């Protein structure tokens, strides 16, 4: 049984990534794959409890990073690794790049400390493909302001999101084969077609 593939979705709040998670799942199922669609923080019963705390409670920035990685440890053990081992494809709305971008960029936690946590929690595992939905922060802000109640992160100021976006783009430059940047200011259908093409390449191992 061939190991499944792991795809992650990233971007600042308001970049519009979540819209595409369902259509990617659909595309993969159509290609004959069994798909597990999940999210971070969360993805397990414990992880969803940690998510509720993380998105609402003020806490020390290192506590926040540690809880993100605690939820991730559980997620990998309970959901991601078993599914990949069964040959299933896992798509996750956010993963470790979000910790580098939000805790590292937005909150200025040292990237070295985050790299230690990454190495501890998943020394071997990396996504096969990461789709980074990128928009200028002004565009993201407008989209967020149109939303219902904003969570702890969504209430952050523009400096936070600028630093978050910068770290995402730095990581995309550092890992160009894994992280593909998608211009999310384009019309929805144009973005959808770009995503579909990148997923098709992964299906065909191009
Ligand atoms: P998000 O994925 O945007 O969900 P929704 O679309 O329901 O708002 O919310 C998760 C939030 O958690 C988001 O603001 C980013 C933040 N986050 C981190 O700060 N670090 C992490 O490691 C992860 C996975 C998420």
Q: What would you say this structure looks like, in words?
A:
The longest helix is centred in the middle third of the chain and has 25 residues, at 61-85. This protein has a 5-stranded parallel beta sheet, with helices on both faces. Helix 1 (18-30) packs across helix 8 (188-203), helix 3 packs parallel to helix 5 and helix 4 packs antiparallel against helix 5. It is of the alpha/beta class and 206 residues long. The chain is 54% helix and 13% strand. The protein starts with 5 loop residues before the first strand and ends with a helix. The mean pLDDT is 97. The chain binds thymidine-5'-diphosphate. Residues 13, 18, 40-41, 68, 93-94, 98-99, 102-103, 151, 153 line the site of thymidine-5'-diphosphate.
**Helical content band:** 40-55%
Most strands sheet: 5 strands, parallel
Question: Overall pLDDT, averaged?
Answer: 97
N-to-C order of helices and strands = EHEHHEHHEHHEH
Q: Indicate the overall shape.
A: globular
- Based on secondary structure, the structural category is alpha/beta
Break the fold down into its secondary structure elements and pairings.
Blueprint: E1 6-10, H1 18-30, E2 35-39, H2 45-54, H3 61-85, E3 89-93, H4 96-106, H5 111-121, E4 129-134, H6 137-145, H7 158-174, E5 179-183, H8 188-203
Parallel strand pairs: 1-3, 1-4, 2-3, 4-5
Helix pairs in contact: 1-8, 2-3, 3-5, 4-5, 4-7
The chain binds thymidine-5'-diphosphate (TYD).
Short descriptors:
alpha/beta, five-stranded parallel β-sheet, 8 helices, 54% helix, 13% strand, binds thymidine-5'-diphosphate
């Amino acid at each position: 049984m061939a190991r499944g593939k792991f795809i992650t979705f990233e971007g600042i709040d308001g970049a519009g990534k979540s819209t595409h998670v369902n259509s990617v799942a659909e595309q993969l199922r159509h290609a004959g794959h069994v798909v597990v669609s999940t999210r971070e923080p969360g993805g397990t019963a414990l992880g969803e409890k940690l998510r509720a705390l993380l998105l609402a409670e003020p806490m020390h920035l290192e506590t926040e990073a540690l809880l993100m990685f605690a939820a991730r440890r559980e997620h990998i053990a309970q959901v991601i690794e078993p599914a990949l081992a069964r040959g299933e494809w896992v798509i996750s709305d956010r993963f470790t790049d979000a910790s580098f971008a939000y805790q590292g960029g937005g909150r200025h936690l040292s990237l070295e400390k985050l790299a230690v946590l990454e190495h501890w929690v998943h020394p071997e595992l990396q996504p096969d493909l990461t789709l980074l939905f990128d928009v200028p922060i002004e565009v993201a802000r407008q989209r967020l302001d149109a939303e219902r109640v904003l969570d702890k992160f969504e209430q952050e100021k523009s400096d936070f999101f600028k630093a978050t976006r910068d770290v995402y783009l730095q990581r995309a430059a550092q890992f160009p084969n894994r992280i593909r940047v998608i211009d999310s200011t384009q019309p929805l259908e144009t973005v959808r077609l770009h995503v579909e093409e990148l997923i098709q390449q992964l299906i065909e191992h191009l």
